[in-house]
Structures are given as C-alpha cells and as structure tokens.
Prior knowledge:
The structure holds two protein chains of two kinds.
Chain A: H1 7-18, H2 21-47, H3 53-66, H4 69-79, H5 92-118, H6 121-129, H7 134-164, H8 176-187, H9 190-222
Chain B: E1 2-11, E2 14-24, E3 29-33, H1 40-47, E4 55-60, E5 63-66, H2 72-80, E6 82-85, H3 97-108, H4 113-126, H5 142-155, E7 160-164, H6 172-187, E8 192-195, H7 199-205, E9 208-213, E10 216-221, H8 223-228, H9 233-244
Helix pairs in contact in B: 3-4, 3-5, 4-5, 5-6
The structure holds adenosine-5'-triphosphate (ATP) and magnesium ion.
Amino acid sequence: xxxxxxxxxxxxxxxxxxxxxxxxxxxxxxxxxxxxxxxxxxxxxxxxxxxxxxxxxxxxxxxxxxxxxxxxxxxxxxxxxxxxxxxxxxxxxxxxxxxxxxxxxxxxxxxxxxxxxxxxxxxxxxxxxxxxxxxxxxxxxxxxxxxxxxxxxxxxxxxxxxxxxxxxxxxxxxxxxxxxxxxxxxxxxxxxxxxxxxxxxxxxxxxxxxxxxxxxxxxxxxx
Amino acid sequence: xxxxxxxxxxxxxxxxxxxxxxxxxxxxxxxxxxxxxxxxxxxxxxxxxxxxxxxxxxxxxxxxxxxxxxxxxxxxxxxxxxxxxxxxxxxxxxxxxxxxxxxxxxxxxxxxxxxxxxxxxxxxxxxxxxxxxxxxxxxxxxxxxxxxxxxxxxxxxxxxxxxxxxxxxxxxxxxxxxxxxxxxxxxxxxxxxxxxxxxxxxxxxxxxxxxxxxxxxxxxxxxxxxxxxxxxxxxxxxxxxxxxxx
Lengths: 223, 246
Ligand SMILES: Nc1ncnc2c1ncn2[C@@H]1O[C@H](COP(=O)(O)OP(=O)(O)OP(=O)(O)O)[C@@H](O)[C@H]1O
Ligand SMILES: [Mg+2]
C-alpha cells in the first residue's frame, strides 16, 4: 500500500506532540542532575582511590557501560520489583529517570575522572603546600578547573540523554515518542508521525548544541 | 625552630637523601647549593611533605612528624608551618592574583573573606603588584607570577618559606625583580630556605650556605666560608665552577 505524503497531518500533529515534550525534558533534566551527582561521587572515589569502594565503583562503571540502556531499564522496571518489594510501587517515569541516571553516570564519571587527572599535578601540590587538605584542594582548585575541561563532553552526554529518554516509552511513560507511536497506530501515518517526532528531537538538540557552544565560549574566556 | 634529623628518602631503590641533619633558627636565611640531581628539590619537598620521606623526623615550630609513624592530620599540621615557592610558580590557574594570595587565609586559617582579601591586597602591594590584583595568572609575566607565588607563600602564615629555584624558569629580564622581593623578605628576617643557582644572591643574602652533593650535606657555613674558604675539595670544585659562570 502506498499513500501520499501528508504535510497537513504533520502540521496538525506537532502541537499534540509538543504537549509531551515537557515530560521528555523533565526526564532528561532530572536524569542529568542525578547522573551528575552520582558521576562526581564515582569519579572522586576513583581519583582518591578509596579502599574497597573504588573497586565497587569500577564494577558499577563496567556494568552500566557494558550493557544496553534498554536492558537496564527493563531490569529495573520489570525485573527488580519481582524480588525487591520497595520497587513494586515505582512508577515508570521514576524508573526511567533512575535508569537514565545510573546509565549515564557511568560514562560521565569517566569523563569527570579524566578531566581531574588532566589537571596538572602542580596545582594539587600548590594547594597542599599552603596547608590545604586534599578535599579542600579538590573543591576550591581542582574541580573548578576540571569542570571547564569536562563541560563539553558532559553537555554531549546531556544531549545523548535527551534522545535516550525516547526509550522510556517501552516502560509506558507517556512522553513524546509514546505519543507519536500512539498517533501513528491510530492514523496509520507512520512515516509522518515518526518524522514529526524526529524533527522535534532534532530541533531540541540543535537548541542545546547552541547552548553548549555559548557555554564553552564563556568558559574559555574566564581565565 | 626547624630541626631535621636523620632524614632519608628513597625512590624505589634509588637513595636520593641519605641521613640529612640540620637546624635552622628563627629569622635565618639558609641557601642550599649543589650540582643537579643531588636531592635539593627532594629535600625541600620533604620539608613540606609534598614528598614523603622514607625515614627521619622533621620539626617545624610546634609541628613534628616522624616519617615512619604519623597520621594524615600530622602532615597537614606540618604543612601549615611552611609554604613553598615553586620553580614554575604553580599559581591557581582559576583564581586571580588576589584570590591566589587570600586562599590559604580563607580555606586553611578560616579568616573572614573580606579581611583575607584585604590582607592579600596589602601583601600584593608590597611585592609591587598593586596594579594586578584582579589579573589571572595567564595574564601575568613570569616575574609577576613568581611575585604572586611569593606573596601567596607569605600569606600562608607559616614559620618558614621554602624556595625551590624561584628564578630558574624566568626570562633573565624578570630575575632581578623576584630577587628584590626575596631580599626584602630577608631584610625583614623572614625565615627562608632557598635552593638556587644564583650565587650572588647566596653571597649577599644568606646567613648560612649549605652545599649538598649526592644526597648528603657535604659542607655548610657562612657565605664567606663556603665561597672564599671551603674546606672540602668537592665544595671547592663546585664553587669555583659556579662562580665562574656568573
Ligand atoms: N618522583 C621521583 N621519582 C623517582 N626519582 C626521582 C623523583 N624525583 C626526583 N627523583 C630523582 O632524585 C634525584 C634528585 O632529584 P632532585 O630533583 O631532588 O635534584 P636537585 O638537586 O633538585 O636537582 P636540580 O638542581 O636539577 O633541580 C634525581 O636523580 C632524580 O632523578
Ligand atoms: Mg631541583
């Protein structure tokens, strides 16, 4: 069966889909925030080589980088509640945010760690030489410098995370992809529906890429 | 005030410091000279515990620490008693000159921020950088950066300032302004230990000169003794060569 391309349909579908962009962005923003906190913790544990925990951190990073996000989401949302009762009441939206942050934190931890290790050793020594502790040095001197180095790659992960929220529809989250899927199966206009959702993701990503460039420009000017 | 006893440092199998003993009195200016690779930097870094000694006891003011038996807390306590001026300045790249100097006061000594900044400003004015308070290290010349480095060390409230070849990385044109600041400090009886190849500075400013070779203190004495009348043959040879270069 061949049908003609229906631009009118896309134009009408756009506002319907855009109503669900909020859910998508909410997942991405919360997911990124939690991922950042987790990643920072993981990176510090590995940089300071904290006994025992550092091996757990490595295992964690290896697992979340070594398995597909979709598998992780299914494990979390469909698997865990079967034997861990606290997960039973968890709604799909929360599960998606948890899954995304766990997954991305593993990648982000590695880029934060690399940024920290990339700061010249003499900066830490200068801190110690005036009596600062390692933790104070991290907070006041090393992390501010490392954050400048890590920002471009962290922004890339944020953009990646926005796109990855589309997987949340497999858990039943009513986000933009889920809505497109629903509209497509009732109108049978699959091409138009998925093209519309692709364009929305694309525009959002272009927007955040612009922000990324502005941010990098500002950071490079700072000192 | 400073007492170093049986200090030893090995890197793997390489013994870089072998039983170093010396004392420094309050207000004394000690200059350490010696050939390249004899452990001068390692000695200074051990005094600040940037390098952990293998053996020995270091006492600076009220803080004392035994290489083979100490806690992290003792290390921080010792470090508070000294500050370091690095060959490559090592200023905090993300902080202005003023913030660099105020950092120890704010973070280590918990001085209220406004007060710390005003103290830092006073010190920077003193080293001739009144115009550069808000400049980042990348905006300063080598000589200016090193003067900020000295100002940062002065602000840290330690008993002693350790200088590791503070002028070696500088273009010749900036050397004098840095030496001038150090002379001013010496004039004010700031206790300092200076590793340098600037023999003229050693002659003029030092109360005592230590000649190090191969991980040992070979000879020490007044500049007069070491430069004009050394007892040890190796001191004699080194001094002769060093003075000829200048
Ligand atoms: N981190 C390190 N690991 C291994 N060996 C080291 C380390 N630091 C220094 N050394 C070695 O220790 C010896 C003494 O080095 P040090 O830097 O203390 O000498 P120096 O007297 O300061 O020399 P220079 O006048 O060239 O600065 C050298 O042989 C050096 O290679
Ligand atoms: Mg040296």
